[in-house]
Structure formats: structure tokens, C-alpha cells
Amino acid sequence: MQHFLDIHTTDAGELRDIIDGARHMKTAREGRPRGAADDEQPLAGRMVALIFEKPSTRTRTSFDVGVRQMGGETMVLSGADMQLGHGETIADTARVMSRYVDLIMIRTFDESVLQEMAEYADVPVINGLTDRTHPCQIMADVMTYEEHRGPIRGKKVVWAGDGNNVCSSFLHAAGQFGFDMTFTGPAQLDPEDEFVGLARKAGSTITIERDAFKAVEGADLVVTDTWVSMHDSQSSKERRHNMLRPYQVNAELMKHAKDDALFMHCLPAHREEEVTSPVMDGPHSVVFDEAENRLHAQKAIMRWCLGV
Ligand code: CP
Ligand code: NVA
């Protein structure tokens, strides 16, 4: 069994195998109703716990459906309703849950919760987002890019806006999948130095460019995310919006990217804030393919974790 905690801590060859597996499983069930079982049932007899300490639409639904398609069962738990939110230690929660379920996916705040869960669980633990990273999302994003445009290796990805948890996992993927990244946003919201350093060490060119229009020149992929993440205080909203407004992804900005550039957003999007509707709904956008591929990528991640 193996945990899926982050992209930079997973072997690059295994990440590639996961993407290939996801593509294979997606093709194998083309045209079937969403609720239909896969031909292969690798999770038959397995129980998966999905723990959420933050809201979720995509992660919750895609994991739940994915487990069922592979023959397993799920229980969706809200962190607030568990003893975890009322004083029981994470280590004890991990030990107890390991006696009931075969796999744990957790969305939490501080990444130390995820790490402690993984340390004390006897079953695989999957990172469903922390304040610092969102690896399942970026596995789906790499899969989506490659479905539309072929290998992502050597491509130029531009991240516009807040250097947040999703941006961090993109930097991890840059190092592991061999693409370059340009960050464009205000200096106060730069991505973490540690993750920029890791990507550079792995051979990726990582550029910081304050001018959004210059940044997107030659971009193969433009990505953004909300200006206020779930872990950010609502009182910072106005300040963040003021800082981030020059980095909105709109039709004018997309004109400066390559003609065939793709646009991605992990969703939920705040239309007319970080991205305008003409871009979200326009010819560059693959945001709903990204959302769909969460399902396929996570199915492959769960199989990898369980070795089935
Ligand atoms: N992109 C993503 O993780 O969406 P949810 O917050 O809806 O799960
Ligand atoms: N950066 C966002 C991603 C949501 C999927 C957040 O953490 O709220």
C-alpha cells in the first residue's frame, strides 16, 4: 500500500503510470451511464472513507462515484461531525479508521493533519487538498492537457493570480513532468520559494513576471484559481481583490498567449473576478474536461494506492 500525499513525493515514473491508467479507464467506459460499473471491479469488497474538513463539490462527488464504478463502497464524513473536530487526536483517529476502512481520503486545513494521518494509518491516505497543496487536481490537469495537446513536457504553463495551494502542486508537477512555468501575480502572493526551488532543481525553468501580458507570451496553457481560497480569511478579500485585479484572465490577456493555448481552472470559479465568462466558456477553455478528469485520475490514484 502507498499513500498519495503530494506530486513531488511520488516517483515520476509512477505518476506517468497513473495518468496512463486513468486514460485507459476513461476510454474503457466511454458512452456508459455515469452510474454503470466498470468491467474491472478492483475495489470490490473495499470501503473508502472520504473525510472533509472543508467544503467540496468535485472532490467529494468524483471520489464517491469513482469508488462505486470500481465496485467499492464509500462513507462521506464531515470533519466537524467526527470526534476529530472535538479533541480526539489525529493519530488515534487514523488508527481507529484503519480498523474499519481500506482507504482514507482527507481534505483538511494544515498539511500536518494529512501527514499525521498518513503516519498512523495502516491503510493508504490520499490528499484531497490542504492549505498548501492539491495534488489530485493537478494529476487531472496534466491528463487533460495531454488529451487535448499531447505531451506536456517542455510546454510553457502560466499561472496567473495567487500563488496558492493549487499553484504549489502545479510547481511540483512542473518538476516531475518536465514543463516550464511562469508565475504572474503580486509579489505578496508569490508561490512558496521552497516549491519554486524544487521545480528548478528538477530542471524546469520557473519565471516570475509581474506584467501579466508579458507573462502569457508564448503560453501553451494559462491557469488561474480563486483570489480567496478556503483557508484565507474573508477579511482579506478586498485587499486581495485589489492586488489581483491586474491578473484577471480575460479575452484580452488570452490574445497574448499562443493561438492554441488552453485555459484551465480547478473550479469553483468566480466569474468576472479571476476569470471572465468569455474565457470560461470560450474556445481555449477545458475547465469541464478538467472537472471530469478528476474522476478518472483519482480512480487510477486509488488503484495505485491499493496496488489493485
Ligand atoms: N477543484 C476542487 O477540488 O473542487 P471542490 O472544492 O469542489 O472539490
Ligand atoms: N485554492 C482553492 C482551491 C479550491 C479547489 C482553495 O483552496 O479554496
Automatic annotation (TrEMBL):
It comes from the Bacteria. PROSITE patterns: CARBAMOYLTRANSFERASE (PS00097). It is an enzyme of class 2 (transferase). It is found in: Cytoplasm. It catalyses: carbamoyl phosphate + L-ornithine = L-citrulline + phosphate + H(+). InterPro entries: Asp/Orn_carbamoyltranf_P-bd, Asp/Orn_carbamoylTrfase, Asp/Orn_carbamoylTrfase_sf, Asp_carbamoyltransf_Asp/Orn-bd, Orn/put_carbamltrans, OTCase_ArgI. GO terms for molecular function: amino acid binding; ornithine carbamoyltransferase activity. Reversibly catalyzes the transfer of the carbamoyl group from carbamoyl phosphate (CP) to the N(epsilon) atom of ornithine (ORN) to produce L-citrulline. This is Ornithine carbamoyltransferase. It comes from Roseovarius atlanticus. The lineage of its organism: Bacteria, Pseudomonadati, Pseudomonadota, Alphaproteobacteria, Rhodobacterales.
